Amino acid sequence: METSIALVGAGGFVGSHLLQALLQRTPWKILAVDLDFHRIQNLKNEKDSRVEFLRADIADAEVIQKVSRSEIVVNLAAICTPSRYMSEAQAVIESNFSHPVELAKACAQTGAWLVYFSTSEVYGKTSQGAEVLDEDASDFIQGSIRASRWSYAVAKQLSERYLAAIPHLKYSVVRPFNFIGPWMDFMPGVDGEGIPRVLANFSSALVRNDPMFLVNGGNARRSFTSIHDAVDFMFCLFENREKAYGEAFNVGNAKNELSIRELAVLMRRIYARMLSVPEEALSPLKEVSGEAYYGKGYEDSLRRIPSVEKSKKLLGFEAKIPLEDALEESICWFHTHYSAECKRS
Ligand code: UDP
Question: Does 152 qualify as catalytic in the annotation?
Fold first, then answer.
């Protein structure tokens, strides 16, 4: 029988890339679930009989039952933009704990393999001197309850623990390290409101010639990973499923680590080269405090470098795309996709 897979959150940034790759690389039957299909409208228009598009909420018990009847269930649905962790903490916890665990319980009943998207943020409030983060050995460090930034990290952490505690559940956990690429998040005021994650926010600023804001000096460091590497990881996972049961995997590129200030400078340089204009003519860099920018309760992880040994050893996966290539592709996409919008506004 042909493999069947459900993508919960198929219309999101990761889901849309994964859906496209599944259609290109497999003959599988796909159930694509989301509330918003704008990123995958072109795939929807193709009316490929292998895909069923379901506009539905994973909070709905009937949807959970239907999804869990697929052989593989990939759960990508989540509120995952830091600007919402403080102002919408309750919804963040429900979306990253309450709903995923209901789906996990249903998968335990049907025997579906649940691939659960968690986050590198489970490692929490890491310091500037943080070591490489190991899936099974590193501690998780979270701030106080008043620091509601950690609502997301703690909900993800608890859902991971819950999955591990459900008897007979076949599951694997993916911890993304700052995936970047076309279709990431949104441009504020155009197709979304609030503050998107840093790649989308800096790209939006560049396209509009607005300031690029460096939160707390832009000293925090991240390891950025191309969405195409992330998709390749998923296929290594699918091909090695027996080895992946019960395991959590960092998915990241330790070679692509830099500070947010360095990222801003690099993105400006790439965009200036693309437009053939001097860098100084583009968005100025401005410093802002975390609380002023995101609101009360904001704290940060200061350094996040993934250990990539486990996915190399168990799945034969290694991220390959250099930071500059991934940024060039993303910035070019943002420019092409949003330039017309910016001229209108
Ligand atoms: N950040 C920033 N300016 C922005 C957006 C984000 O300096 O316009 C910083 C943010 O404070 C954090 C890092 O960039 O230190 C990454 O933030 P993002 O929202 O992309 O996600 P995170 O990795 O924190 O989940």
Answer: yes
Atom 25 in ligand 1: which residue has the minimum CA distance?
82
Q: Which of 85, 133, 195, 198 for mutating ligand 1's site (highest number of atoms within 8 Å of CB)?
A: 198
Whole-structure pTM over 0.90, yes or no?
yes
How does DSSP classify residue 188? Answer: B
Tokens coding 271: 């965009």
Looking at ligand 1, which residue's alpha carbon is closest to its atom 6?
198
From first to last of the 345 residues of the chain, give the pLDDT tens digit: 789 999 999 999 999 999 999 999 999 999 999 999 999 999 999 999 999 999 999 999 999 999 999 999 999 999 999 999 999 999 999 999 999 999 999 999 999 999 999 999 999 999 999 999 999 999 999 999 999 999 999 999 999 999 999 999 999 999 999 999 999 999 999 999 999 999 999 999 999 999 999 999 999 999 999 999 999 999 999 999 999 999 999 999 999 999 999 999 999 999 999 999 999 999 999 999 999 999 999 999 999 999 999 999 999 999 999 999 999 999 999 999 998 766 544
Choice among 85, 116, 123, 152 that is catalytic: 152
For residue 230 the two structure tokens come to 């992330």
Q: Where are the alpha helices (DSSP H) in the chain?
A: 13-25, 41-45, 61-67, 83-87, 89-93, 99-110, 151-165, 198-208, 227-239, 241-244, 260-275, 290-294, 309-315, 323-344
